[in-house]
Amino acid sequence: MKLRYLGHSAFELRSDSGHTVLIDPWLDDNPQATVKSDSINADYIVITHAHFDHLGDAEKIARRCNAEIICVVELCSYFENKGLKTHPLQIGGSKSFPFGRVKLTIAWHGSQTPDGAYAGLAAGVLLWMDGVCVYHTGDTGLFQDMKLIGELQKVDYMLAPIGDIYTMGIDDAVKAAELVHPGITIPMHYNTWPIIAADPEVFAARIKALGLKCLILKPGDEV
Ligand code: NI
Ligand code: MN
Question: pTM to 2 decimals?
């Protein structure tokens, strides 16, 4: 499988079987993004929560690509009212799709659509594709149950926010990686605006000091 960073918290995952899954595709107004929503395709779109920098261009992409949106049930209702295809999950729930499996985890954060609609709980995402487990924490503070997430499955890639203010900062994200013990930690949700400025090299050095691996992706980079 291929994982491409699109900037902020947006990622594209492509399976060997040819399925494309987007997570939190905020592109058109994302100062970090190197691709626009009209030049990206998706079969499925996973949304962690409804804040504008995560909901992003999901509606536009889903409509153009006839993609299915996977998110908490309350946010599904919001998209269903717009005539889009959805698949509901709730925290702790999982489901197999043609590309692999998705499970929602807790995330300590809020959620509300840009137009003020109720959107249920914010979530993190565990996604298995081609035998690889990706944990996109969503926007969250640090929580002890991350240890359980790391115990219940081997996380290969942990996508963790480090920008502080709205999410974990570097100190807590380092602790999060220590709890989850992923194969590789990739920082996200930083330097999009001055208010969430963070130095990923500082984060990477501290992850490496724990004996773990850190990979800093620039928007557009792929692994
Ligand atoms: Ni948020
Ligand atoms: Mn956010």
Answer: 0.98
